[in-house]
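STRUCTURE:
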């Protein structure tokens, strides 16, 4: 179990690595750039969630980062599900989760860059 947790921690520190690995492995096996990019986004989202929650906890000195991300995900599911229900009269759960997961990739990607820069700046200014 120690090797698996160490691997997850290392891949969470630099979430670009799992993106590149997933993209090239999928492209090599399927020869489809669009599918490879989508799968790479889906795989990287998990590592981005872990990384952003750790960065949030580090920058703001709290333990609420992971729960904040989960709260935002639940709110997004409710909003997208409500919009689907109003527009089509039913909720397509698979499309809703896929939309939320892809939006999470974009949001956590931006949050990762911003929080990483904030943590670097605070580290340099504290020295």
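SEQUENCE:
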């Amino acid at each position: 179990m120690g090797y698996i947790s160490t691997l997850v921690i290392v891949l969470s520190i630099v979430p670009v690595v799992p993106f590149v690995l997933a993209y090239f492995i999928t492209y090599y096996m399927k020869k489809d750039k669009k599918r490879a990019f989508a799968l790479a986004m889906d795989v990287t989202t998990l590592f981005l969630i872990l990384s952003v929650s750790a960065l949030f906890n580090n920058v703001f000195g709290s333990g609420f980062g992971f729960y904040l991300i989960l709260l935002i995900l639940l709110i997004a599911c409710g909003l997208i599900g409500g919009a689907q229900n109003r527009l089509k009269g039913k909720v397509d759960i698979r499309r809703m989760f896929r939309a939320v997961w892809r939006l999470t990739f974009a949001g956590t990607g931006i949050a990762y860059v911003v929080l990483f820069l904030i943590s670097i700046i605070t580290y340099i200014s504290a020295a």
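REMARK: The helical segments are 2-13, 16-30, 33-60, 65-88, 93-126.
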